[in-house]
Structures are given as C-alpha cells and as structure tokens.
C-alpha cells in the first residue's frame, strides 16, 4: 500500500502545482472577471449559463428553456451549458455556485494536467518528462488565455485523454477500446464547444490516415471504418444534446454555415503572431490595452492569436521536430505528430496558407476563427517537447538526471506562472455577482415586465485603450447596464440576449428595432419603436445615453467620471400575456418592416398565416397562475373571440392547450407566440416539450445501457481469461 502511494508522487506533485494556481479563488470565494470587447464573456455568457445550470440541477431539472434571455431562449440546445458533462453534473449539483466556479477551474486544469501526464507515460516517456509536459500544456496560452471561455478550456482539457485512447485504438482495435473511446468522445461533445470537437475529430482522422501510411498498414480501411462506427456510437450517446443543438442550428442565423470569407478574414492569425511562442506579450497585451484594437481584420484578438507554451518547451519541441524529420529510422507515431503540428499551424493561418480552401466545406465551414487550430499546435508541440526531453535524459546518469529535471520543471513552472499569475483579474463573488445600484430602482415584481439595454456600449472606451489593469472600478460601474445575460443572476427578464446561436426570428426583430432607433447626441426613439417595445413587455430601458422621447420617464441616473447610465420607464407597456382583437397578415420579411411603420403593435397583432377570422373590439382578462421556465398556466376570460399573444420567442417544442385540448401555436409579431381564443372563460396552458430532446433522451439512454452491458461483458471475459491462464 505504501509503495503504491509512493508511486503516485507525480500525480500528487501535479495536483499541488494546479492547486497553487487556483487556491486563491477559494479564500474568499472569488471569480475571474476578465473583460472582453463590449462586455465580459465570463460575466455575460459563461457564468450566467453555469448559474442557470446550477439552479436547475439543484432543483432536479434540466435547463431546457430560459425565460430571462433573448425574449425566451432554448438555452440547453445552445449546448454551452454543458449539462451532461459529468464534472459539471457533480460540481453544480453538489456545491453552492460561489464554490462551484473555483472548483470547476481546479477540476478542469487537473483533468488537463493528469490527462497529459497519462498520455505521455503511455507513449513511454519517463515520469519527469511527463510532469514537464503536463505543466507546460496545462499552463500554456491554449488553456490560461481561455479562462474566460469555460467551454473551450473544458473541451481542451480532454484532448490528452482522448488522444491517448485514439492511440490505444490504433494499436489494438478491441471492443474495450472502442467503447471507452466512444464514451470519451461523447463527453468531449457534451462539454458543449462543438468547434473544438469537430477540429479534434478532423485531426484524429488525419492521425489514423497518416499513421497507417507510415506503417504501411494493410488494414487501414478496417481501422477507418471502425473509427466511423465509434463516431456513430458517439453521436448516439450524445443524442440528448446533439439533436436539440442541430434543431437550434436549423432555426438560427448559422443554418447554412458561415461565409468562408467571414471565417478567414474576421479574426485572422498572422505570421507575426508566431513570435508569441517566444514571448506572449511581444506584440502587446489585452491586459493593458496594447493589443486591443477593434480592427480585428488586421490585428486579430490577443487570446485567439497568442501561442505560448514556455521558452524551454518551445526550444525542445523545435529540436524534436528537426530530429524526427531527419531521423533515418523514424518513430512513426511521433513523426505523425510532427506532421499534425504542421497541418494545424497551416490551418490556423487561414488565408496565409494553402489549406484555407478546407474552410469552404462542412464541417469546417460552420465555425469562425480558424486561429483556434493553434490550440492543437500548442498541444502537439508540448508532446514533442516532452519527447525531446526524454531523449536527452536517456544519456544521463541518475543523480545529474534528477537535478537536471528538477531544474527544468522548476524553471518552466516559474516561467509560466510569472506570465499568467496576474494576467486575469480576480474579484470577490459577493461583489461582482451582487446587484448593481441600478437594480434597486426597478419594480420588485420581476416576472411582470422586461428590461432592455439600448445605446452605445461603454466598455470599449476603457477596454480598447487601457485593458483591465487597474480599471476594475469602471467595469463594476458598467454592470449598471444589467446587460444581457448578466440579468439572470437577479431573475430579471431581458429582451436582448448574448447567445451563440441567435434564431433568425430574434435577429429579424432586432433589425426592425434598430431601424426605428436613431442616435445623435442622445437616443431619439420613434413612436413606432416605443410601441414595439411596449408590445414586447418592456417596461424599463437602461441606456448610457439620454433618451429623447417624452413617452418615457427618467427614474434614475448615475455617473462615474465621464460615464453615465440612465433608467427610463414606460407606463404603457403590455403584459407578457395579452389579448388582441385586431390582426393583420404578413407574407414576407419586408412586410414586417412596412407593417410596423403603419400599425400600432400594442393594438394589432401581425400573423404569418392567412386566415379568415372576424374579430370585434372587446374586453378580456388574463390571470397568471404559473410563469415558470418552459411553462405558463393562465386563466383567460374574454367576452368575444380574440387572439392571445405571448411575447415569448416562437420556437418548436412549445405546446398549447385550451381547457385540456391541444391548439395550434402561430408565430406572431416576428418572434412571439399566438393562439386563437373562443369567447368565455378558459384554462390555457403553454409548455415546452421539445421532441428533439425527448427523442435524444431515449437514444442516449439506450446507448448508455448498451455501453454498460458491453463493458460488463468484456470485463467478465477478461476475468475468465485470467482464471484460465
């Protein structure tokens, strides 16, 4: 027992190194609060998503629908919540949110480090070189610069383990390796960052192909077909997330992928960025604003283009590349990794490399920022660095070898920690997740209305010039905007949303609103814009500019230096559930733009279905029994037939019943739901029960049962063989 514990010293050492970086988040409970262009991807996207996940898991529910984002949004379908990623399930169901976030970082970086150590050991690299590789990769730019993007680092952290089992599969196509690899791929996909998964599968497929060529393996076709079967089984294991995500993609603005020109030119990586392998800040830093130009087409973005694995690792990896390239009797596997390093480097350079043509075709055409291939370049370079270090150590005796490794690991750890320790700003959770001053000026019946943020974004005035170094008080002040999706921390309903896959209807509605708003020295809101907001249940407008519209009352103003925030209130906003007795029909997108200039959307609803229905002006009442995530229960009374409009996003999966009988839900007012109401008193129920989720649940459950059954069978067979031996 003692010997076994002693043999685990590398794992304990790695745990100590990772813990030393993140322990500061626990005392007191704290979060990273790194700003980005226009907002913070942490405070306005990743943390709100994890907060929604935490609330739902601790209430034994799935976060299928979120009322408070983007006029209602299928947040589960977007996938970035990572609902079924096992560490997320454990962490967010067991721990309070303020402890869950530090633990998420700790566990993610431990998975990365221990996975990298295991991968390198499986490649016959000694313990010290494997520790060196684990530290180098885990605290490389690939991981640390993406601390703001939880889905990215969680996905990247699984790379070492998945590659290890891909190699196991290459060497032995057993049922056990087939099943374990399928499960790992499934977890890889369920983290929720599809781009990294797709890039990884592309590279793993290339690995199988290249390794087969180098080995002149005759059964390459068999290996390739088995790998395809692994992917099919992976998709069935992940169907519970995959099917809703595919459905959302079909209804989103990315249905047909992204224009290749946009992919390659919007956030490019330049040859010049390769200098950051020597010094991550050689071209500037996001921290102090020296790399924060909004001219992304020319400069790119710091955290997307910076590649640093440490000075010693990059030096060793380059030596390894030359050694393996010119080696007479090549190590086939490591030489394959050299080729993959070159491929990922070329792909990350976008238009500057001949491989750019690949981004014109699926699946690469669905994702922006080809520079993210540099995450894999860094990963492969660290493997080559560990290989080279291991090579050098073979010619050293024991005592000098220990001193040498101690020096190399210490210098690399110091190098990486000195670069990144103070890069990301840290704030106390109770301060940064507490309601800002503006929140206390809003009516406390949060479910009765929406807020909307309009006007210029003030974040970039600080971020572009100064980054975030010594600027935290400004960013705290900017939280007064209650910007999307920061509002979910306080259960506020926001008309807008910061989402990865906005639906086409939501996007169209935003376009119509933008056309009606004009900005000069202040915000000049047209009467039609005001009525459109009223029809969408918007009671409060939060703005960094004064609003020129007498129909809004200014109820709050706050100022810090030259920055201001205002809150304006409308007294004529409609309830979320409203009865209309007048409608018009639209037949095209252009019709919507035209009709909204002609009608009063608080009195007339726009429908997309040609119907014959005579309505008369009447009176009605809606009593709300339930207004929950994905369920509305209403008692509706109307003296004459009418149309009940719910100013909540129109999306497949919603079902409606009147007095227990199913009724059709129609799209209305671009992105709302509507049903026809007969006269009288009725019990009306809306519920979100997406077929894509239910079908995916059945497929995933069945697939996991098959996986478990086959694993148990292989285990029994292994035991029988041992007994026989």
Automatic annotation (TrEMBL):
Q: Which UniProt keywords apply?
A: Membrane, Transmembrane, Transmembrane helix
Under the heading InterPro entries, the entry gives:
Uncharacterised_YfhO
Q: Which residues cross the membrane?
A: 7-27, 99-119, 152-170, 190-212, 224-243, 308-326, 333-353, 373-390, 402-421, 691-712
Task: Give the protein's recorded name.
Answer: Membrane protein 6-pyruvoyl-tetrahydropterin synthase-related domain-containing protein
């Amino acid at each position: 027992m003692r010997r076994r514990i002693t043999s685990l010293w590398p794992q304990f050492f790695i745990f100590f190194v990772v813990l030393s970086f993140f322990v500061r988040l626990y005392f007191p409970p704290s979060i990273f609060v790194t700003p980005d262009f226009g907002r913070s991807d942490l405070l306005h996207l990743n943390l709100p998503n994890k907060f929604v996940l935490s609330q739902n898991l601790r209430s034994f529910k799935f976060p299928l629908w979120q009322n408070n984002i983007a006029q209602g949004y299928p947040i589960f379908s977007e996938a970035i919540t990572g609902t079924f990623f096992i560490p997320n399930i454990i962490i967010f169901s067991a721990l309070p949110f303020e402890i869950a976030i530090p633990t998420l970082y700790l566990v993610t970086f431990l998975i990365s480090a221990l996975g990298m150590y295991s991968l390198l050991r499986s490649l016959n690299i000694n313990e010290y070189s494997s520790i060196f590789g684990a530290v180098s990769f885990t605290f490389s730019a690939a991981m640390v610069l993406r601390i703001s993007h939880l889905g990215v680092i969680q996905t990247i952290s699984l790379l070492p383990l998945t590659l290890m089992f891909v190699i196991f599969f290459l060497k032995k196509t057993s049922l056990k390796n087939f099943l374990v690899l399928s499960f790992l791929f499934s977890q890889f996909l369920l983290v929720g960052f599809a781009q990294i998964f797709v890039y990884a599968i592309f590279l793993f497929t290339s690995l199988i192909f290249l390794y087969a060529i180098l080995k002149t393996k005759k059964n390459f076709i068999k290996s390739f077909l088995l790998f395809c079967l692994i992917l099919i089984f992976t998709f069935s294991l992940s169907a519970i997330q995959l099917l809703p995500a595919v459905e959302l993609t079909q209804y989103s603005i990315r249905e047909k992928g992204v224009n290749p020109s946009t992919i390659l030119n919007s956030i490019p990586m330049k040859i010049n960025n390769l200098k950051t392998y020597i010094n991550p800040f050689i071209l500037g830093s996001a921290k102090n604003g020296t790399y924060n130009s909004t001219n992304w087409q020319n400069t790119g973005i710091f955290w997307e283009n910076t590649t640093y694995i440490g000075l010693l690792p990059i030096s060793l990896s380059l030596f390894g590349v030359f050694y393996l390239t010119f080696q007479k009797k090549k190590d086939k596997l490591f030489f394959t990794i050299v080729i993959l390093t070159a491929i990922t480097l070329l792909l990350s350079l976008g238009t500057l490399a001949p491989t750019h043509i690949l981004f014109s075709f699926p699946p690469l055409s669905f994702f922006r920022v080809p520079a993210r291939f540099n995450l894999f370049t860094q990963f492969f370079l660290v493997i080559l660095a560990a290989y080279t270090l291991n090579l050098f150590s073979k010619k050293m005796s024991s005592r000098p070898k220990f001193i040498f490794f101690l020096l190399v690991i210490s210098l690399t750890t110091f190098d990486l920690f000195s670069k990144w320790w103070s890069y990301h700003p840290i704030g106390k959770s109770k301060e940064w997740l507490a309601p800002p001053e503006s929140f206390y000026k809003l009516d406390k019946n949060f479910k009765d209305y929406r807020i909307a943020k309009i006007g210029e974004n003030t974040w970039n005035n600080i971020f572009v010039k100064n980054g975030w170094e010594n600027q935290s008080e400004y960013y705290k002040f900017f939280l007064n905007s209650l910007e999307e999706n920061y509002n979910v921390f306080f259960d506020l309903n926001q008309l807008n949303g910061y989402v990865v896959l906005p639906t086409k209807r939501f996007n169209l509605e935003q376009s119509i609103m933008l056309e009606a708003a004009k900005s000069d020295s202040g915000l000049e809101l047209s009467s039609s814009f005001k009525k459109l907001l009223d029809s969408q249940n918007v009671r409060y407008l939060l703005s960094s500019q004064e609003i020129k519209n007498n129909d809004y009352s200014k109820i709050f103003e706050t100022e810090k230096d030259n920055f201001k925030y205002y809150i304006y209130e409308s007294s004529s906003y409609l309830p979320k559930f409203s009865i209309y007795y007048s409608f018009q029909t639209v037949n095209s997108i252009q019709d919507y733009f035209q009709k909204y200039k002609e009608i009063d959307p608080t009195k007339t609803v726009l429908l997309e279905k040609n119907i014959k229905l005579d309505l008369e002006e009447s009176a009605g009442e809606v009593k709300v029994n339930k207004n929950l995530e994905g369920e509305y229960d209403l008692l509706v009374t109307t003296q004459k037939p009418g149309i009940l409009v719910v100013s909540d996003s129109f999306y497949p999966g919603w079902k409606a019943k009147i007095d227990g009988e199913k009724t059709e839900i129609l799209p209305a007012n671009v992105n709302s739901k509507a049903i026809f109401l007969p006269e009288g008193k009725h019990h009306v129920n809306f519920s979100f029960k997406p077929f894509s989720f239910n079908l995916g649940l059945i497929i995933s459950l069945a697939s996991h049962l098959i996986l478990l059954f086959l694993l148990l069978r292989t285990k029994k067979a292994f035991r029988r063989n041992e007994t026989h031996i």
